[in-house]
Write a structure and sequence with these properties.
The complex is a heterodimer of chains A (202) and B (240). Chain A has 202 residues and is of the alpha/beta class. Chain A contains 9 helices and 6 strands, in the order H-H-H-E-E-H-H-E-H-E-H-E-H-E-H. In chain A, helix 1 packs across helix 2. Chain B folds into 2 domains: 120 residues, OB fold (Dihydrolipoamide Acetyltransferase, E2P) (Beta Barrel), CATH 2.40.50; 113 residues, no CATH class. The longest helix of chain B is centred in the last third of the chain and has 21 residues. Classes of the chains: A alpha/beta (202), B alpha+beta (240).
Chain lengths: 202, 240
């Protein structure tokens, strides 16, 4: 049965959009229809923006962030360099989340994943050597391990700590505890224990 | 098809955008995989971590299917494990060892030992012994255990001190004399009669299990030894 509602160009667009996270074939079809209806105000600017992004977006050779130049804007910021604080994250999405929070003006380092024996991800598959090189240069005072609170994330954190052991740099990690809006009744025992152990003056 | 069992989570893999394929070592159904819908949600994040023991309800149309799990918490250890590098390495080592077992083949004694090691706060020599015994039991249950019942040359049942790296059969110190450079030491914990210090005892035990795991499991399957093993053994032996 032929499910095509338009020409092959439209069908190709549907198939490509359906590969995006959060979109399936039906929602991709709706998106394509919407783009076609708003050709001048949405489709053309989107195509132009995509075209420009393809030409300009690069991965920062220093930190692994994505930007239009390398070193990226974050790595080039002198205030961040002077802070001497380097936050290690698993993925670019984590970097963006921390930047959204705006809690600290610091440099970042994107590992590109976590160590995972099950998925065959070893230290050589992650940006750990570049992290060691950055710390070795001596501009970093403190390394914050902002990896996920999962078994793989913490294994990676311990491995990175081992690799940085020989340098005179302070190594810290994010606190584990009760999230905002979290109800104690629904928290797992381990998190509760950690939250209680890491209690602060009030 | 439906069953309910208790299981130790030994691995998870992302499936699609929201689901997770959970690999669990269950008491009556062995190493068993199943899909947890919505497994990547916040609700399940703390639950579906390797090292946790959970109550599993598996359901599938046919027995051969992957099937879907519903999961309830039983003993959530992951957060505690994350606090200590050694405990985390231990948990990873146990999980990696359990992953070499065939699927859906129950090994309740191995699982009991795995749970006990997760729960005990033992360290040093006793932890080393527990790991070595666990590895030897793993070899035994896969059919590659050593034969320390009697001497391969004389038939004697006492005074066994060495093991052949080829056959896994034990020999007495007397019978081993002409072949000492080719044999491996049989420590007390595996029924040997050699008088060794705690450190030598553990080193001999780990050398033995490593040799046979390598020969029968890792090399034929083109696997590397578990990444946590070397570091953990080094930490334990250096601390003695």
């Amino acid at each position: 049965m032929n499910n095509q509602n338009g020409g092959p160009e439209i069908e190709q667009l549907v198939q490509l959009l359906a590969r995006l996270p959060g979109l399936g074939p039906r929602s991709a079809r709706r998106a394509v229809l919407h783009l076609i209806k708003k050709k001048d105000t949405l489709m053309v600017p989107l195509a132009t923006a995509l075209d420009r992004a393809v030409d300009t977006v690069v991965t920062c050779a220093q930190c692994g962030n994505v930007d239009t130049k390398s070193p990226c804007n974050i790595c080039s910021d002198t205030r961040r360099i002077e802070s001497g604080l380097l936050i290690v994250v698993e993925d670019v999405a984590d970097l963006w989340a921390l930047e959204r929070a705006g809690a600290n003006k610091s440099l970042y380092h994107v590992l590109g994943g976590t160590l995972s024996p099950l998925d065959g991800v070893g230290p050589e598959d992650l940006n750990i050597n570049t992290l060691v090189d950055r710390v070795e240069k001596g501009d970093v005072r403190e390394v914050v391990l902002a990896v996920n609170a999962t078994v793989d994330g913490q294994t990676t954190a311990h491995y990175v700590t081992d690799r940085l052991e020989s340098f005179e740099v302070k190594i810290t990690r994010l606190a584990h505890g009760v999230p905002v809006g979290g109800e104690l009744d629904y928290l797992d025992e381990g998190t509760l224990t950690q939250a209680l152990n890491a209690r602060t003056d009030f | 098809m439906e069953w309910r069992d208790e299981g130790l989570i030994i691995g998870t893999r992302k499936h699609g955008e929201n689901a997770v394929i959970v690999e669990a070592m269950t008491t009556r159904h062995g190493r068993h995989l199943g899909l947890v819908r919505g497994g990547r949600s916040r609700r399940f994040a703390a639950l579906l971590q390797p090292g946790n023991t959970v109550e599993l309800n598996w359901r599938a149309r046919l027995e051969d299917h992957l099937g879907a799990y519903t999961v309830e918490a039983k003993s959530l250890r992951a957060a505690e494990l994350m606090q200590s590098r050694d405990r985390l390495s231990l948990s990873q080592l146990i999980c990696e060892h359990l992953r070499v077992l065939p699927e859906r083949d129950p090994h309740p004694r191995l699982l009991a030992e795995a749970n006990a090691m997760h729960d005990n706060q033992a360290d040093g020599y006793s932890l080393g012994c527990a790991i070595a015994k666990f590895e030897m039991r793993l070899l035994d249950e896969l059919g590659f255990g050593i034969d320390a019942g009697s001497c391969a040359l004389t038939g004697e049942q006492s005074g066994l001190s060495y093991v052949s790296p080829k056959t896994g059969r034990a020999v007495t110190a007397e019978a081993a004399k002409p072949y000492l450079d080719k044999l491996m030491r049989l420590p007390h914990i595996f029924g040997g009669a050699l008088d060794l210090s705690e450190k030598d005892e553990l080193e001999a035990a780990f050398a033995l299990t490593e040799h046979f795991l390598n020969m029968h499991i890792w090399l034929p399957r083109q696997l590397s030894p578990p990444s946590a093993r070397e570091r953990l053994i080094k930490t334990i032996c250096n601390g003695l």
